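Person: I keep going back and forth on a fold encoding question. Show me how you would write down a chain together with its backbone fold. Please set it down just below, with no commentary around it:
Helper:
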Amino acid sequence: VVLLEHFRSTTEVAAFRVVHQPAVLNQVVFTSFALLFTPLASRFFARGDMEGINRLYWRTATWLAVFSFPIFALTFSLAEPLTVTLYGDAYRSSATYLALLSLGYYFNVALGFNGLALKVVGRLRYIVSLNIAAAVANVVLNLLLIPPLGALGAAIGTTATLVLHNLLKQA
C-alpha cells in the first residue's frame, strides 16, 4: 500500500485495499485450525513420530482446502459480482485484484501448515531466512510492477510472493 501510494494515487490504493479484506477471508479456517495443529504436531515430534507429523500435515491441509473452498469460489470465481455488490460499480475494476489476491491466499491455505510444521521440527533458521527472502521478494516485485501497472501490479506482486513463499516452505 505504501509503494502503491508513492508511485500512484489514493484512488489506486482504495481500489486495492477495498478488496484486500474479502481476499483475506480465505484464511479464516486456516487461522482457526492453527491453534489446534501446533500442540498435536509438537506431541508427535516429542515422540519422534515424523510419520505422524506427515499424516497430520496432509490431513489438515486437505481439510483446510475443503473448508476454505467455498470462500475461494466466491471471492475468485464471482469476484466481479461480489465486488460490485459490496462496494458499488465504482469499484468494478477491483474485481481483478480480488481474484488475484484470493488465489494467493487460497494457495497459502491449501498447502496447509507447512510453516508451522517446519517450526515444530526445529527448522527455525530456514523459516526465518525464507520469511526474510519472501519479504525482500515482495518489495522487489512491487517496486518492479507497481510503477507500470498500479494496483494490478500490487495484486500480482502480492500473489506471486504468497505462491513463491509457500512453494519454498513446501520444498
About this structure: The two ends are 30 Å apart (CA to CA). The mean pLDDT is 94. DSSP finds nine helices and no strands in the chain. The longest helix spans residues 50-77.
